[in-house]
Amino acid sequence: MKLKRIIAAVAVTFVAVSAFAQESYDSLLKKAKDYESKKQWVHALGAYWDAMEAEPTEKSAEAYEAFTKLSETIREGNPGYGDFDEFSLYDGWLALCKEYEKYWTDNCPYGFSLSVKKGDLDMETRTATYTVKVNYGDTYKYKSISGTLGGRDKTVGLGRVWKSDWAGIPENWPCASVFDKPDAEKEKQFLKDGIALTCHAKDSFEHYNMVAAFRSMTNDGNHWETSLYDVQFNITDENGKTLLSGGRTIAGSVCTFKGVPQDTMKTIDSGAYKITLAGVWLNYGLTKAYSYTVLNFSEMLESGDRKWLEGTKSMQLDASKIKFGYLRNVSNSEYYNGYMEIPDSDVIASMNNYINAQKAAAEKARKEAEAAAKKEESEKQAAEIQALAKTDMLAGMSKKGAKTMQKVIKNLGFTPEAQARFLHSKGETTFKMFDGRDEASIGAELQYWKRVEMKAGRWK
């Protein structure tokens, strides 16, 4: 189907977003095809998604179709295109899981939003305290590609085909990395093939999983959660003058500014400021989160305390490629849940909605064309019947046949128009076909036709 321009109206409450660096559609499409040729399926999906996002018009049809086709193939349980036996199926999925962990190590799967809130005033110094909550949430791209590969979901992707003898791929992948193994911590190998890893404690530190660091760090039993991403930002006035400069703040926590002077307060309170993302880092390695109680850990997160990250390493990401936005004059709900305001859109859902709209429009056009054709045919038939009704429809018949025909027509109440419609339906112009037949047989045929016409509401 040829796709026309997509026009989307999106209502949002965030007031500013990052200048998200984007390559051209053609460049991204070429990159995606190159990845496909190298069988780098996750990178191909990512590039196809980026291409659609860069060009949300009919031009993105090729990227949409390629993304959809490859996604469906993987969701069926195939680690990409090709024919697989028992061994190549395993090898393919092992490579795909590693590529997935590598891709999201290099490409942040989250979007960040910052919400500024005014705190206590210090009447003695005439200053104020401001806090900035660094919220984060999964991007649609991450959710879509992760949902395609499956894992814990046994109905799609890896979950459909995983077998207990697949020793190199954990059953609970991606909750455990493909590099999860008992001696990993002892070897202190937290960067494998470019994949940043961390350790999740279970009952005690002796029982743990190695996990790709990009995944949120959670403890389901005790209900605490954070991420291993650091965000650094600056608050400036509308002319670019720096008002407040934050340090590295762990995503999910709060950055506090004390002693903010009155002139800066006035600018912030009026909303005449901007926030720029100065840096994003992914921390990895062995954290100390397991050594803190849930209560203490929650307090540390809220205050931005970074003691639990001591000893970890970090890699800096390209901040210009990270999605982020911020909120001014926030409510408590927006302050804590601002991650919902990241400037992100589900391009697949948008394309599907557009295609469905195009199909509906095409179906409407088809029905309108059919109705117009029917009307035209009906008008043509009406004109032909009117012309036929003005002719001598008994012409060419024998005297006896014409007399018999006239008697039947009179008895049945056939008007000239009804006679003409009957002849038109038979492709005839006179009643010569009845010449030589008796009154009863002619009457039976015309009587049946009359009943059909009356039932259809066409009898006149």
Polypeptide structure, described:
The protein is of the alpha+beta class and 460 residues long. The protein has 14 helices and 15 strands. The strands form 4 sheets. A 5-stranded mixed beta sheet has the order 1-15-2-3-12. The radius of gyration is 37 Å and the shape is elongated. The two termini are 47 Å apart.
Keywords:
disordered N terminus; alpha+beta; five-stranded antiparallel sheet; five-stranded mixed sheet; single chain; 460 residues; 14 helices
| Mean model confidence by pLDDT | 86
Instruction: Determine the number of helices (DSSP H or I, runs of at least 4 residues).
Output: 14
Counting helices, strands and paired strands, the structural category is alpha+beta
Shape: elongated
- Unreliable parts: 1-20
> How are the strands ordered across the major sheet?
1-15-2-3-12
Cα end-to-end separation:
47 Å
Whole-angstrom Rg: 37 Å
- H-E order: EHHHHEEHHHEEEEEEEEEHEHEEHHHHH
Helix content: 40-55%
> Main sheet?
5 strands, mixed
SS elements, strand count: 15
Strand fraction: 15-25%
Can you lay out the helices and strands and say which pair or pack?
Elements: E1 16-17, H1 25-37, H2 41-54, H3 61-75, H4 86-106, E2 110-122, E3 127-138, H5 140-149, H6 157-161, H7 184-187, E4 191-192, E5 195-201, E6 208-212, E7 217-219, E8 224-226, E9 229-237, E10 242-245, E11 249-250, E12 254-260, H8 262-270, E13 273-284, H9 294-303, E14 313-317, E15 324-327, H10 332-337, H11 347-389, H12 399-412, H13 416-426, H14 439-455
Parallel strand pairs: 2-15
Antiparallel strand pairs: 1-15, 2-3, 3-12, 4-5, 5-6, 7-8, 9-10, 9-11, 9-13, 13-14
Helix pairs in contact: 1-2, 2-3, 3-5, 11-13, 12-14
